[in-house]
Design goal:
The chain has about 260 residues and is of the alpha/beta class. It has one domain: Rossmann fold, CATH 3.40.50. Helices cover about 35% and strands about 25% of the residues. It has 9 helices and 10 strands. Strand 9 and strand 10 (about 220-225) form a beta hairpin. Helix 3 packs across helix 4 (about 115-130). The N and C termini lie far apart (about 60 Å).
C-alpha cells in the first residue's frame, strides 16, 4: 500500500469551541489537535460533550464560539471544501432509510461528485466489506441496528476521505464484522488517513488508538498518545482517576442474595 505524504496541517484543529443549549454549556472553550495519520480516541462519560464536539467539528452543528479546521480548512468559512475531506458516522443521525443499502451508498457518493462508473465498484466493494451484499436490495428501514451502523460506515467511506469521524462505530455490530472493520480502519490509517473514534469502550480505544483525549464537562482534561495519557495504569483506571464518579459499593442490602 502506498503511503501518502504527510499533510502540513493537523487533520483536525479545534480552538476555543463553545456550545450552549439554553442555560447548559455543553462544550466550554474546548481545544484539541489531532495529528494527520493518527488513530485518535475520544472518551468521556455520558453528557461530557463528545457528540456535540464532533458535530461542531464536522459541520453538523454551528458553534457559539471558536473554530474548527480540517487539514487547515475552516469548517464554517469554507464548508463545501472542508466537508469533502471528511467522512462522518454520527450517532443518532437518521439516514435516508427508504433507500436500499446499495442506493444509499450510491446516493451518498453522488453527493460527493463521484462518477457513476466508479460508484458501482465502490458500492459493491463496501457492501462486501460490511457483509451486506445479500441485503443490498433491502430498504435500510428494515435493517437491524448493527446493519444500519455498517451501512452508515460504508457511506462515510465511499468518497475515500482524508479524515474519518466515527461516533460509537462498533455499537450493535457483531464481533466478526467488527474485526473486519477494525482491519479496514487500521489499513486506512496506515496509508495516511486519520481516524477519530468516540467510544465508551476503553479496551477498544487502548487496543486500536495511538492517541486519546479524555473529555469531561465540555473540556479536554488530558490528551496525548495513549501511553502518555494512561501512564502506568490501564486507560480505564486512568479515566476513572481523572473523571471520578465511581462508587465502590456492593449495593443496597436488599439486593444481595444471602
Amino acid at each position: 500500500m502506498t503511503t501518502s505524504p504527510p499533510h502540513p496541517d493537523p487533520a483536525l484543529r479545534l480552538t476555543g469551541l463553545v456550545k450552549r443549549f439554553g442555560d447548559k454549556e455543553a462544550v466550554a472553550d474546548l481545544h484539541l489537535t489531532v495529528p494527520t495519520g493518527s488513530f485518535y480516541g475520544l472518551v468521556g462519560p455520558n453528557g461530557a460533550g463528545k457528540t456535540t464536539t464532533l458535530s461542531m467539528a464536522t459541520g453538523l452543528l454551528r458553534p457559539d464560539a471558536g473554530t474548527a479546521e480540517i487539514s487547515g480548512v475552516d469548517v464554517w468559512r469554507d464548508p463545501v471544501r472542508a466537508k469533502a475531506m471528511v467522512g462522518v458516522l454520527s450517532d443518532g443521525v437518521r439516514l435516508f432509510d427508504r433507500l436500499t443499502g446499495a442506493q444509499l451508498i450510491t446516493y451518498t457518493g453522488m453527493m460527493f461528485g463521484l462518477a457513476r462508473a466508479d460508484l458501482a465498484q465502490r458500492t459493491a466493494d463496501l457492501l462486501q466489506l460490511m457483509d451486506l451484499t445479500a441485503s443490498a436490495g433491502v430498504p435500510v428501514v428494515d435493517y437491524s441496528a448493527g446493519m444500519t451502523k455498517k451501512i452508515g460506515l460504508a457511506c462515510a467511506l465511499v468518497h475515500a476521505p482524508r479524515l474519518l469521524v466515527l461516533d460509537e462505530p462498533f455499537e450493535s455490530v457483531d464481533p466478526v464484522s467488527a474485526a473486519n472493520i477494525e482491519d479496514v480502519l487500521r489499513g486506512y490509517a496506515a496509508s495516511g488517513g486519520t481516524v477519530i473514534v468516540s467510544s465508551h469502550s476503553m479496551d477498544l480505544v487502548q487496543r486500536m488508538c495511538d492517541h486519546v483525549a479524555i473529555i469531561a464537562a465540555g473540556r479536554v482534561i488530558t490528551a496525548g498518545t495513549v501511553d502518555e495519557v494512561r501512564g502506568d495504569a490501564t486507560l480505564q483506571d486512568r479515566f476513572l482517576q481523572l473523571v471520578g464518579g465511581r462508587h465502590l459499593t456492593e449495593g443496597p442490602a436488599w439486593l444481595r442474595q444471602s
